[in-house]
Amino acid sequence: AQSVTQLDSQVPVFEEAPVELRCNYSSSVSVYLFWYVQYPNQGLQLLLKYLSGSTLVKGINGFEAEFNKSQTSFHLRKPSVHISDTAEYFCAVSESGGYQKVTFGTGTKLQVIP
Amino acid sequence: ETGVTQTPRHLVMGMTNKKSLKCEQHLGHNAMYWYKQSAKKPLELMFVYSLEERVENNSVPSRFSPECPNSSHLFLHLHTLQPEDSALYLCASSQDPGTGPHEQYFGPGTRLTVT
């Protein structure tokens, strides 16, 4: 069965500093990987996804993530954060083939400090 | 209205009440989902409907009863809930999950408090 681990429940970072949010997954087959963002009082919104091809994936709002198969990771990065990036970020995994069930991590709250 | 809408946005109910949550999607999708979001827990998938048929039911207590009358509407009927059922209930939609890894589009959620 697939699973996702987000070890950091909260990440404080100063405005304009870089940030990395960590995500590790577990699966016995090929996977698809996603990052979603949830702003206060809103539902989740897709930031980016890895399906195949280049391991470096660029998403909205200047975020990018790199798929590392050997380390089973899909860390999210941004070189310079803004106050508006304060939100909760969820990593998710879906196994390839058949019914595409998506499993979400516990989320990482990014707090950008002015 | 565009995207995925949910009503009500907030709901307070007693343990003996019966209420329903409503979700509507305007994206032309044919799959809809109910999730439960509790603090410090992973997003819990409750039900999935694809092409108006329930394809997943993750051991959800019978006090939660889903209904999908058509591909655009999804309901979650609630009765005799427990305080631990207090959470944010999120609805999502996507293309048929049996045809590939499709992005899910989420509504803003209903904040449920059981007293």
What does this molecule look like?
The complex is a heterodimer of chains A (114) and B (115). With 114 residues, chain A is mainly beta. Chain A is 0% helix and 54% strand. In chain A, strands 2, 5, 6, 10, 11 and 12 form a 6-stranded mixed β-sheet that branches. Chain A has a 4-stranded antiparallel β-sheet with strand order 3-9-8-7, with no helix packed on it. The model of chain A has no long low-confidence stretch (mean pLDDT 92). By secondary structure, chain B is mostly beta strands. In chain B, strand 5 and strand 6 form a beta hairpin. Chain B is built from no helices and 11 strands. At the A-B interface, strand 5, strand 6 and strand 11 of A face strand 10 of B.
Helical content of chain A (DSSP H or I, runs of 4+): under 10%
Straight-line distance between termini of chain B: 32 Å
Described by its quaternary structure, the protein is heterodimer
Q: Radius of gyration of chain A over alpha carbons? A: 14 Å
Give the overall pLDDT of chain B as a whole number.
Answer: 91
What is the overall silhouette of chain B? globular
Portion in helices of chain B: under 10%
Largest sheet data of chain B? 7 strands, mixed
The number of E-state strands of chain B comes to 11
Order of helices and strands of chain B: EEEEEEEEEEE
Sheet with the most strands of chain A?
Answer: 6 strands, mixed
Strand content of chain B: over 45%
How many H/I helical runs of chain A? 0
Rg on CA atoms of chain B, Å: 13 Å
**Discrete helix count of chain B:** 0
Topology order of chain A in helix (H) and strand (E) letters: EEEEEEEEEEEE
